[in-house]
Design a protein that fits this description.
Layout (H helix, E strand, L loop, with lengths): L8 H8 L62 E4 L7 H12 L7 E4 L9 H15 L4 E6 L1 H10 L2 H4 L2 E7 L10 E6 L16 E6 L6 H4 L1 H12 L14 E10 L10 E6 L14 E4 L5 E7 L4 E6 L5 E7 L6 E8 L4 H5 L14 E5 L11 E4 L2 E2 L14 E5 L9 E7 L2 E5 L9 E7 L5 E7 L8 E5 L1
Parallel strand pairs: 1-2, 1-3, 3-4, 4-5, 5-6, 7-13, 12-22, 14-22, 17-19
Antiparallel strand pairs: 7-10, 8-9, 8-11, 11-12, 14-17, 15-16, 15-20, 18-19, 20-21
Bound molecules: calcium ion.
Calcium ion binds next to loops.
Length: 470
């Protein structure tokens, strides 16, 4: 099996989902940080070093607020998330970090994984709810469903025994009214170009309509978080941005395949500290290697503020791809390492589109807070060249997986949109890979959090490179 990263990793991951571990699993994490208001989150910014040197490390100064996971409030009941089409836990992962930044115990914020292309997650959802209730000792969970997941939520809640286990329900862009339990319906006037926001209705339903959020940002934006937090916690969050946790970050989650979310048992992840790499393409021993168990579960403990490289290998040891996160600012229990599906249908709409050659990279980008949005201050540059445009990151496009490569093999970044399938867009971007070097990457989200990192220029003919951005 391929291990995660492999090709799409990041991207795919996005939407599709995966989710993970609920309970015990942990996941890997990312960092994210957001920042804005409190600046704290900002942690993600990386200090750039010498022009040709390896990557920089996170500036520790933004961590003036530390909200360690070990000091979380264990009086709060579990939260269970169900993703939508092509989705995974990734869609809600930044929101979970924000909950954790306000003292919520992140290891009880769990998510159901299922095949988003025709699967029926009823049994998995029921099992996960029971598992987290048993683990935490609560009698009820709160349930959040996104897009296609809202339909599955309604099926689950339609059963009286199940419904008794759910205290509150959050319907994110869907029509499930929560079977009578207190429900928050969250949508936007910018939700999938629909003429009207996608809401549930009923006496038990409170509708909130945002204006800037795209379909994906409705699960991951700052305002979406605030609405969810108010509804579930019945108070205002102290922090709306991701705050630093302890110096040791727990990354817990799952290695799964893209879209159909099959556990990637036996997947191998070699972890490297980018700062310590002397040569872009040469690797010695990793600082640690993680192998996914039979359920795809992975768990690793790393250090806050350091940029890591995750090299995926299959069971035969063959490198399947590379994934890069911004330096982690706090533990993450909803990590998803996504690899290519074994389904030809899925690869035909995703990684098979990438035009590969020794002279240019094949990149896949994913933003954990929503879709890529050129209109909403999102910026992604490689060596200073902007790649996000109205064509490949439009306001209504809901792009969660952005594939970047030299589609026409002309050596120039022509941008535009060269192919697309629902939430996956392909654009023409050239990052030269003829000789080994470091590529400067800068990402800015709508909250104006900026992260800088460096990545090796792996040739697309060898491997795809995934970026999961905070
Ligand atoms: Ca081109």
């Amino acid at each position: 099996m391929d291990v995660y990263i492999h090709r799409l990793a990041g991207l795919v991951g996005l939407l599709f989902g995966v989710n993970v571990c609920g309970v015990g699993c942990g996941s890997i994490s990312d960092d994210d940080a957001t920042d804005a208001a409190d600046a704290s989150d900002a942690a993600v910014s990386v200090e750039e070093e010498a022009p040709d040197g390896p990557i920089g490390t996170l500036d520790p100064t933004p961590c003036d607020n530390e909200i360690p996971a070990s000091e979380c409030d264990d009086s709060k009941q579990p939260i269970v998330f169900i993703h939508g089409t092509f989705g995974s836990a990734t869609e809600i992962s930044k929101t979970a970090l924000r909950f954790g930044s306000n003292g919520y115990c992140q290891d009880r914020f769990v998510a159901v994984e299922y095949n988003s292309l025709g699967g029926s997650p009823g049994e998995q959802l029921a099992a996960l709810v029971d598992e987290v209730l048993e683990r935490t000792g609560f009698e009820q969970v709160d349930l959040i469903a996104h897009s296609q997941g809202t339909g599955h939520a309604c099926t689950y809640l339609g059963n009286e025994v199940n419904r008794a286990k759910v205290a509150r329900y959050i319907n994110v862009s869907g029509g499930c009214a929560g079977a009578g339990i207190p429900t928050l319906s969250l949508s936007s006037t910018n939700d999938l170009n629909a003429p009207e926001p996608s809401h549930a209705a009923g006496d038990n339903v409170t509708q909130v309509t945002l204006t800037e959020e795209d379909h994906v940002a409705l699960a991951g934006s700052e305002l979406a978080f605030v609405e969810m937090y108010r509804f579930l916690m019945e108070e205002e969050p102290e922090y709306t941005t991701v705050q630093c946790g302890s110096e040791t970050v727990v990354l817990d989650g799952k290695a799964v395949t893209f879209a159909d979310n099959e556990p990637n048992a036996g997947a191998i992840l070699d972890v490297f500290e980018v700062d310590t790499l002397d040569e872009p393409w040469e690797r010695g021993e990793p600082i640690t290697t993680v192998v996914a168990d039979e359920n795809g579960h992975v768990h690793v403990e790393l250090t806050r503020g350091v940029q890591y490289e995750f090299r995926g290998r299959d069971e035969a040891g063959v490198v399947s791809g590379y994934i890069y996160y911004a330096p982690f600012t706090r533990s993450d229990y909803l990590m998803r390492f996504i690899s290519e599906s074994d389904s030809p249908l899925i690869t035909s709409i995703s990684t098979d589109n990438v035009v590969r050659a020794p002279d240019h990279m094949g990149l896949v980008g994913r933003y954990r807070g929503g879709a890529f949005r050129a209109d909403w201050n999102n910026s992604l540059t490689f060596d200073g060249e902007e790649v996000l445009t109205e064509d490949n990151a439009g306001r209504n496009a809901s792009v969660v997986g952005l594939f970047m490569y030299d589609a026409n093999l002309n050596g120039d970044s022509d941008l535009g949109m060269v192919d697309n399938t629902s939430f996956l867009y392909m654009t023409d971007v050239v990052v030269d890979s003829t000789t080994p070097r470091w590529v400067d990457v800068q990402w800015t989200n709508e909250d104006m959090d900026t992260v800088q990192l460096r990545i090796p220029n792996w040739p697309s003919s060898e491997n795809l490179t995934s970026l999961v951005l905070p």
